[in-house]
Amino acid sequence: MADATTFDSDSGIERLTRRQREVLALIAQGRTNAAIARELVLTEKSVVNHISRIFDALNLPMVPDDHRRVIAAIRYLAR
Questions:
Q1: How many angstroms from the chain centroid is the CA of residue 54?
Q2: Which of 7, 23, 35, 43 is least buried, going by the fewest C-beta atoms within 10 A?
Q3: Which DSSP string corresponds to 48-79?
Q4: What's the mean pLDDT when you consider all of the chain?
Q5: What is the pTM for the complete model shown?
Q6: How far lies 27's CA from each of 17, 20, 55, in Å?
Q7: How many Cβ atoms are within 10 Å of 69's Cβ, its own excluded?
Q8: What are residue 9's phi and psi, to 5 degrees?
Q9: Where does the HTH luxR-type domain start and stop, copy by copy (predicted)?
Q10: Which positions ≥6 away from 46 have C-beta within 8 Å?
Q11: 70 contact partners, CB below 8 Å, separation of at least 6
């Protein structure tokens, strides 16, 4: 898993909890919700809740033309 200890202050990543950063790191690796749940020993519902909170913290509203999961992963990788 990628190191999630240093963050760019403009990306919003610093607002995420440690667990949310772990989930986002796995999203950035291309993992599905089911794979993330297995890796972190969570339920898929918990993963979905973490992802929703990640979108909120990163200020990524649902819009028809954007894929929030990809945008969040790009922000994580660009930090």
A1: 5
A2: 43
A3: HHHHHHHHHHTT----TT--HHHHHHHHHHH-
A4: 89
A5: 0.84
A6: 15, 10, 12
A7: 16
A8: -65, -15
A9: 9-79
A10: 37
A11: none
Kindly list the structural domains of the chain, giving each domain's residue range(s) and its CATH number in brackets, ordered by start.
Answer: 13-78 (1.10.10.10)
Token couple for 70? 């990809």
Chain centre distance of CA 37? 13
List the helix and strand counts (H, then E) for the chain.
4, 0
pLDDT over 70 (residue 26)? yes
User: Please, which pLDDT band fits residue 10 given cuts at 50, 70 and 90?
Assistant: low
Q: For residue 41, which phi and psi values (nearest 5 degrees)?
A: 55, 60
On the question of pLDDT at 34 being above 80, the answer is yes
